[in-house]
Amino acid sequence: MTELTTTTPDGLHITVRMPDNHAWVRESLERACAAEARRQIEEAPAPDPAYAVPRAADLLDLHPETLRDYMRLPDHHPRRLHYVPGESSRGDRILLSQIHDWQRRNRTDAPPAAIPAPRVRGRRPTA
Prior knowledge:
With 127 residues, the protein is α+β, with helices and mostly antiparallel strands. It contains four helices and four strands. The strands form two sheets. A two-stranded antiparallel sheet has the order 1-2. Strands 3-4 form a two-stranded antiparallel ribbon. The longest helix is centred in the first third of the chain and has 21 residues, at 23-43. The radius of gyration is 26 Å and the shape is elongated.
């Protein structure tokens, strides 16, 4: 048995008992669960992916060494590209939010970098 309970604006409590296999109950519960799942997904924080320097350079259409030069500028410099330092320069990562911030500050006419499709790793096609 499934119990559906509600309270009216004037304080009247209503409870209805229905069998679990009733189609209306099942459909209502499915709609409610789907609506709650959508709400939770919409309210969840968006991911902020991190990219290695060569991949970030591709996104910005820059040479990797030019990008590294922007990363080496002083902290207060407007063209500085902030990054997450790794154990070595190969481990440095640039967050997508930092790429967007850098674009907003320096290349206002360029379209914002989008999250690229994941690279598929596998066998190379044979010719």
